[in-house]
Amino acid sequence: MARPEVLEQIYTVVAQIPPGRVTTYGRVAQMTEGATPRMVGTAMRKLPDGSTLPWQRVVSASRRLADHGGASRQRERLTAEGVIFDAAGRIPAHLLWP
User: Fold this and answer.
1) Which range of residues forms the domain containing residue 81?
2) For 1-98, where are the alpha helices, taking DSSP H only?
3) Distance of CA 12 to the CA centre of its chain
């Protein structure tokens, strides 16, 4: 797991992703001082229940949802925000943030 200060940076970046947009684990990692995409994924997976952080807006580099237990809930939340998916399950590049 990432150091507390790196976790704080990850959470700060994710909190800034606007509704209807997504970013990748790698992009979040690049905006921190020392995080890796895997650390970002772990940080999202270990959020406490009831967290208001928009974890659903962080996706894989392929712009598909990562294969995890919350993928269907993630897709529902993103769809409710207006995010669209193509026939292959990819999110269009124009929805990437920043």
Assistant:
1) 4-95
2) 4-15, 25-30, 37-45, 71-80
3) 12
CB 67 within 8 A of CB 53: no
Q: What is the CATH number of the domain that holds 78?
A: 1.10.10.10
CA dist., res. 76 & res. 55, Å (int): 13
Name the domain count of the chain: 1
pTM above 0.85, yes or no: yes
**Contact call for residues 44 and 15 (beta carbons, < 8 A):** no
Helix, strand and coil content of the chain, in percent to the nearest 5, comes to 45, 5, 50
Helix (H), strand (E) at residue 84: none
pLDDT in tens, 5-36: 999 999 999 999 999 999 999 999 999 999 99
Asked whether 66 and 59 are in contact (CB, 8 A), the reply is yes
What pLDDT, in 10s, does the model give residues 33-80?
999 999 999 999 999 889 999 999 999 999 999 888 889 999 999 999
